[in-house]
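This entry is passed on directly below:
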Amino acid sequence: MGIYGSMTDPRSRNSREPVNLNGRLTRRRHKLAPDPGIRRAILVAASMSVREHGVRGLNIATVLDRAQLSTRAFYRHFESKDQLVAAVFLEVAQVEATRLRTYMAQASNPVQAVTAWIDARLDLAFDENVKADLRHLAVDAQSHMLNTPELVAPAYAETLEPLVEQLHLGLQQEVFRDIHPVSEAQSIQGVVWASTEQQWASGDGQRDGVRQRTVRFCLRGLGVAADTIAEVVGADC
């Protein structure tokens, strides 16, 4: 890759001594090493673009214009648009995981923590601020999970991790029985996503009712006792 040029010392046309190309290439690598600040600027610009227009509307030229960077700067930090998309998904998922952990921090046991995770994820359907910020990304992530899972799988796992941790803890404490934490977390996410999509489509659901149905269904699947479920959802089972 690149042009090697003359294999002789340029100080003498008659010299046959080889030039040390290793030092030259090493200096070039150092010069073109990725810069965390530039990578961050590209990622921030891309995240803003995806929030506004979705992944399909993501355009590298527009991102670079927004970040005031060159194409060369982009390819120093990302090999392709797909790699940038994966990085955006992971960035947003890390922020969402922090929000979920904060929401779950007040729970006194795994059952309450799982319920808190469900509540927080239902914000995507009912909280206007969260919905406006994440709806494009959530829809795109779900689509990529079906078509190109390698792009979104790390982000998906990041969002599920707080839930998986509580399912492990509940299994250890025998609050949940005969479960596989990762599989159960994926199932719970599927139920919450179905409730979210239904709310987006109809817009006529009441949060308390959707919450009760969703939490009840998920906790029953985890083997939680009926009286405990009733306490958590605030209604008879």
User: Anything to note?
Assistant: The CA atoms of residues 51 and 134 lie 7 Å apart.
